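Margin note from the TA: students keep mixing up input and output lines. Inputs are the sequences; the output is the structure of the whole complex. Example:
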Amino acid sequence: MIMAKDPVCNMDVEEEKADFVVHVHHETFYFCSERCKEEFEKEMGLIEPAKGIRIWSRFLKKLSNGADKEFGGKPPKCH
Ligand SMILES: [Zn+2]
């Protein structure tokens, strides 16, 4: 029986029975629960937290509004 450590809560997880597994950078991580797995994926930037996406789209909207003023309604040239 091989035990791995859940990197989020430091709980011992039995590798063979682990339901929550993440492979990243050629390493395998085992988790005790979906919650810990998600926490880890967020930490590693593997998934975007829903809140982050909302802030990001608001930022982009603000950015395009600013561009409208600065460039008189024409989109800025990108090349
Ligand atoms: Zn855990």
